[in-house]
Amino acid sequence: MASSSSARARRIDPILANMDKTSPSQDIVVIPASQAHTASVIFVHGLGQTTFTWRAMILEGLVPHLPHVEWILPQATEKHVTYHRNIRRPSWFDIAALPPGADEYDEPGIAESIRIIESLILAQIHRGVDARRIILMGFSQGAALAIMTALSTLHDLGGVVSLSGWIPLRARDQTIASPNVPILWCHGIPDPEIPLSMAENGVAYLRKHVHDQDKIQFKTYPGLTHTINDDEVNDVLAWLVEQTA
């Protein structure tokens, strides 16, 4: 289902915003629930971004409507990124090109980052949050990581949201441990960095391997490039409200 192209595109710029709490580790920003904490969203930023990049969308578009949700925003460490001529950038794993090549797969980097996200999931579970009320969400490279983690984890998660994401082809050789995870996949048209064809291919793969087809929602946004807009944020909000009710 396509959304209106008239929605205002939101800028993805590093901004300063009032955060309720920063974790003892400066690599993780936590926005506590303003009411009883009954669900958590782990948001994974994209290549070259920081947690600051997404604070506007999360604080303005989502947090006020989800008072029971705690938000966890991990920060990727800086790595030499092939795509950026080996300049150090915040990155979850190495990327040689955008769009990513069919054979591209930084297995050590991906495995390390999946362990990081898994540790955040475990931390929430140890605090008493039901795994079925933990959502993974990410943008671009962060979306790819969120999807790979959600499919490989042994925990029965509440869902995963992909914003302009993809599934690396070689990641599909791995056994899917969680074939019942609810998925919301959102993608702009045209997206020059992660083309729609890559999103459609990823969704087709999921439809083939996820048991319940009704748990997969695929939404496209004409006129939206490699960014987000209000329509997309509203769709994400509606989905999160339903999944964390």
Helix content: 25-40%
Mean pLDDT across the residues is 89
Which strand-content bin applies to the residues?
Answer: 15-25%
Spatial shape: globular
- The CATH homologous superfamily name equals Alpha/Beta hydrolase fold, catalytic domain
Keywords: Fatty acid metabolism, Hydrolase, Lipid metabolism, Serine esterase
Catalytic activity: S-hexadecanoyl-L-cysteinyl-[protein] + H2O = L-cysteinyl-[protein] + hexadecanoate + H(+)
GO biological process, one term: fatty acid metabolic process
GO molecular function: carboxylic ester hydrolase activity; palmitoyl-(protein) hydrolase activity
Explain briefly what this protein structure is.
It contains five helices and twelve strands.
Write the layout of secondary structure elements.
Layout: E1 9-10, E2 21-22, E3 28-31, E4 39-44, H1 55-62, E5 69-74, E6 78-81, E7 87-90, H2 107-126, E8 134-139, H3 141-152, E9 159-163, E10 183-189, H4 196-209, E11 216-222, E12 228-229, H5 230-243
Parallel strand pairs: 4-5, 4-8, 8-9, 9-10, 10-11
Antiparallel strand pairs: 1-12, 2-3, 3-5, 6-7
Helix pairs in contact: 2-3
